[in-house]
Fold this sequence. Notes:
By secondary structure, the protein is of the alpha+beta class.
Amino acid sequence: MKSRNNKKEIEHEWLKMSSGKFHVARGYNKRTNTTQVITSWRSTEDPGPGLYSLQIDSIEKQYVLKWNKSVQYWTSGSWDGQNHIFALVPEMRLNYIYNFSYVDNDNERYFTYSLYNPEIISRLVIDVSGQIKQLSWLDASQQWNLFRSQPRKFCEVYANCGTFGVCRENRLPFCSCITAFEPTSQHDWDLSSYSGGCMRKNNFSRNEKEEKPGFILSYVPSRFLSSSEIKTLLPDDESACRSFCMLDCSCYAYTFVSKQCHYWKYEGLSNVSLMLSDSNSQTFAINIKVSLSDTPKNASKNNTKVLVAGIISGFFSLVFLCSIGVMCYRRVKRQALEWLSLRSLVGKETRVIIIINMPLALYPMRGACGKTKSH
């Protein structure tokens, strides 16, 4: 669908420019106090409503991105009417293609844009990645050209890798699972939909009499501390916090901050963005409960055991093969000696051929006259 320089075609709407990847929305209606939104697909193959949505702020002159229609993770910044841009979207200054405008009256508030060249084909989508993407069609290369995306980095999208997933900008795919976890749905991950997160490879025992669980270390931004619960009536040391989480079936992770024991239930971890390292002072360590066999120390032991078992098995296999080889060599050598001994006993004019363990009738013998006889 073409975006044309005709206000009647585009005002009051977030246009669905191609492929139905988002729903049409009309901004904010002040009379009814309702907001319509653009929602991402669930995956690249599933057009059902996804977790990410774009909408006009009902209070400020800005639009925002939300996760699960509840957590705001990006804003455009306030509208600058003089320069016709949003404060936190400097790319809008490159307005040789798009003519942006923001309308705010007694009835409604909405943002729209048109094209200076009505022949250009454009689309604005909210991708399954949770990013806004504005693209234009290039006839010369026959492909879509990305004009801008917000947030600029994939890993800036809230909870984009799901529960127990980590995001890294320096590798593809951006999402991966932490140690001892695997994708909840490999099919969804193959479609670049990571919000389903990861699950444990091995469930830990909930029976205290059996082997106790262990913990693996990860890191989270400090803003996620609010999604934890505080365990009171515990001594102000980390060992008591660790023991509590180890024995409590509802505890999935814990951290000890400012002499307080914070712990997470599964629901609290569902929107936490994990990190593999303490990259800055705005993060804190989090200990995630896993099966003891999946902790790095025990995993190393298991790998060592497998390696030792492989070496021992290989050694005995080699000894067995060498033994077979020696036995065969000795047998051949014995037969050769028997042959030489028999030949030395026979006269020079008589030629006798004897093959050990083979019927003599199969081999001809030559008599003194040089005639061959068959037995």
